[in-house]
Amino acid sequence: MINYVEVIGLIAATCTTASFVPQVYKAWKHKSTKDISLSMYIVFIIGTILWFFYGIYHESLAIILANGITAILAFLVIFLKLRHK
Amino acid sequence: MINYVEVIGLIAATCTTASFVPQVYKAWKHKSTKDISLSMYIVFIIGTILWFFYGIYHESLAIILANGITAILAFLVIFLKLRHK
Question: Which of B8, B35, B39 sits opposite A50 (nearest CB)?
Answer without folding.
Answer: B8
